[in-house]
Amino acid sequence: MMSLMKHLFRVRSLLHVTIALTFFVALRCASPSSDKSPDNQSNWIKLGPGGGGATFIPTFAHGNPNQFVVRCDMTGTYITSDGGDSYSQTNFPNGATAYAYDPSDERILYAGNNALHRSTDGGKTWQQLFPHPSEVKETKYSGDHASFRITTKEGSLYPEENAHVHHIRVDASDTRTIYFSMGRYLFRSTDGGEHWNRYETDAMIVGLYTNATSAKDILYILTARALNKFNKETAEITTQALPEEMVPVISLTAGTKANSDAIIFYALHNADDDNPDDEFGETQLWISRDAGATWNRSLDKVLTNDGNTPSYSMVACAEKDAGTAYLVCNRYKETLNDGTTRYWYGALKSSNEGESWEWVWKGGGGSGRYGVKDGQGVANLTDAWTEKAFGGEYIRLIDAGVYPDDGNVAIVTDWYRTMKTTDGGKTWREIYSVAHPDGSFTSRGLDVTTTYGVHFDPFDPQHIAISYTDIGYHHSFNGGKSWIRSAEGVPSEWVNTCYWVAFDPEVKGKLWSVWSSLHDFPRGKMTRNPNWKKYGKGGVCVSTDGGKTWQPTVEGMGFDSPATSIVVDPKSPPGQRTLYASVYSKGVFKSTDDGKTWTLKNNGIGPNTAAFELTLSPNGDLFLTISATPAHTDGKAGLDFYSGAVYRSKDGAETWTKLNVNDGLLFPNGIEVDPKDPNRVFLGCWSDITLSDLVGGAVVRRFNAENKTLDMPGGIFLSEDGGDTWQSIFDPEQYVYDVTIDPRHPGRVYCNTFNGVAWRSDDDGKTWNQLAGYNFHWGHRVVVDIHDEEKVYLTTFGSSLLHGTPKIVANQ
Question: Which residues pair with 200 in a beta bridge?
Fold first, then answer.
C-alpha cells in the first residue's frame, strides 16, 4: 500500500494515473433505447452530503404523496417512493424536461427529454415511445456540453428543430390517451403510444390541461399568446387570444376547486420581456376562474409589493384543490424608511383561489448578493448543511410542485436543495440529506453537484476529501459514510468552487487547495464575458489541521487568481516544498517556499493563458493543458478565439514548449504519465464545440455569423516519446474528460466521458467494455480506490461521487 501511496503523490491526481492505449475501432455511444433502463446503479453507491445544486419539475404521483420525481440541472432524474427519505436515480441524455404520472397507476411514469419515455415499474426500466426507435436514423453528441440530439428518418413526425418534450399529460378519462408538446407542436396518441398524430399551434406551448369531468372532452393548450381548445372528438383546435396585457405567458398551472368541477387557471406574465437573458423581469399573476373565458390580474398588495413589482418564476397549484397555489419568488425588493433596500426570496401561498397571498418560505433580507451573508435564513425550515453554509445570503428559489389531491403537500426547490411541506407551508424540511449528531451529513441519494477529484490523506485511511463545484471542499473521517463541509478561512469571494487538493505526503495534517469564484471550468460558457478575468477571484489556501481550517496564501499571485490545479513536487524538502498552480486567467505559478510566495512562470506560453491542469511526471517533466477560450480583442466580445494547447517544461516551469498534438484546433482536458514509463503520456480531449459555445450565441447573432461547428479531435492521444509526437488512439468523437491507469491491475485502463459512458480496458486499450450500471451523461474521471484494489470512484459533472466495483458489460 505504501508503494502505491508514494506513486500517487508523484502525479497530478494524487490518486489516479493515466492510460496506455492502442487504436480503438468499435466504440459505441450510449443512447436511449427501447426497453432499456437509462440507469441501473445497483453496483454503485452514491457518496456525498446530498443536494448541492438546483432541482426542477417536482412532480407527484396521483393518490400517493410519497411518490414523486424531481430532476436536477445536471441531467439526473431522482425518484422516491418514501416521501424523499431516499431516491433512486435514472439518467436521460440532456436531462429530463417534463414528467407525468398515470392518474390511475403510480407505477407508470412518463419522462421527456429529446424523446418521450415511459416506465411501468416506477422508473426501474424505460421504453422510448416517441420517436419510435425504428424511426431513429442517428443519435449524436455535440457541443461543449456534448448535447444529445436525434435525427429521424424521412416521414417521421419528429420535429428536429424543436426537439425537447416540454409538457406531458395523461388523459384521466382514458389513460391510453397521451398528450405532449414539443415547441409549438402538440402530439396525441390514443393507443398507449403506439401511434401518434401531430398538431400545430400558434406559438410555444407553455401548458396542457384536461380532466375527467368538466374538461372531459377538451384539452386546454396555453401558449405564450393564446388559450387553445383541442376538441378530443374532432381533433379541431379553436384559438382564443389572451388579453394583450398578459402576453407573453411564461408559466401555467391549472386544476379544479376542491369538491367542484370549476376550473381555475393561474398564469405568469413577465412584463420585462425586452431582454430574454434577464432572469429578473417584473412579473404579473393572472387568474381565470371560468376555464379561461375571462382573465384578471391579481392586485393583492403582498403579491404586487405596492407597485415595486417582484420577479416570480413559477406558479403551481393542487390539481384537485386548485384554490391552493404557490408562487416562487426570486427577487422581492423592500425599500426601508431610510431609503435603503433589501431583497427577499422565497415562496408565497394562496388558499383562496389567488385572492390573497402570504409568505410561507422567506429568506434573505440583505443586499441580495451571492456570497454576502447580510440577511437571514428561513425561520420555518428544518434543514441539513445548506442553511448553515449559505443561509443569510441570496439563494434563488427555482421551482415548485404540489400534490394533486392536497394543496397542503408541496415541494419547493432552490440553488442547493429540495424542501417539502405537509402542513401547507407552516413548516418545511429538507429531503436531500441526513444530519448526524457529530455535524456530518449523508446523502439521501439526491446529489446534484460536480466533483473534480477524490483526495486521500496519507496518514489516515478514513480521511478522504472531495473537491466540489458550488459547495467547495467536503471531507469525511469515516471512509465516506458521512461528510462535513470545510470552508473556514477561505475568503467568501472564493468559496464557490474548490477545484483540487494536494496533501503533503510527509507532513501530517498539511494540504493545499485551489479555489475560484468561477465554477465549471473548462466549459466555454465561463469565459464569454470580456470582463471574466476582472470578475474572477480565487487562489491557493493551505491547511495545517487536515483541512478543518484554511488560510489564503497568494503573495505574488494575487486575490484575483481563479486556480484550478495544484501539484506538489515530492522530491522537494518538507517545509520548503516546490508547488505549481494553474490559474485559469493568468497561467502557471511556482512556489519554492511551501506556498508562502508565488512567481508567475509563463515563459514560452502564448497569449492564451487559460491554464487548466498541471501534471508532474515521475522524471520531473511538467505538463500543462490550456483550454480554448475567446480572444476578447481590445477587451470586447467578438468572434475571435484561441485554440487550446498542451505545453511541457523540462526545467521546473522556467520555460515552456508547445507540443504539436494536432495540426488544427484542440480542446485538451486531462493529461498524465504512465508511472512505469515516463515517455508514455496520455491526453484526454474534447470533441467538436460550436462557435457560440465559446463566444456566446448573442455575439454570433450580433455579427450575423454562422454558428459553425469547430471540429477538433476528441478521444485520447498517446505519446511514446515524452510528448514530442502523438497519435490518436481512441474514438475522436468521444468527449473524454480524463483517463486512468489502475497500477494494481496490469493492463487495466479506464476513461470517463460526457457521452454517458465510462469504459474499461483490461488489455492496455486494445479492447474496451462499458462499465455496467453507469450512464450519467456528464462524466469526469475514474479514480482508483487506494484502500480497496477492486473498487473505484467515478466523479461526475453534476451527480456527485459514485463508489463501487467496476463490473463490465460485454463489448457488443
Answer: 185
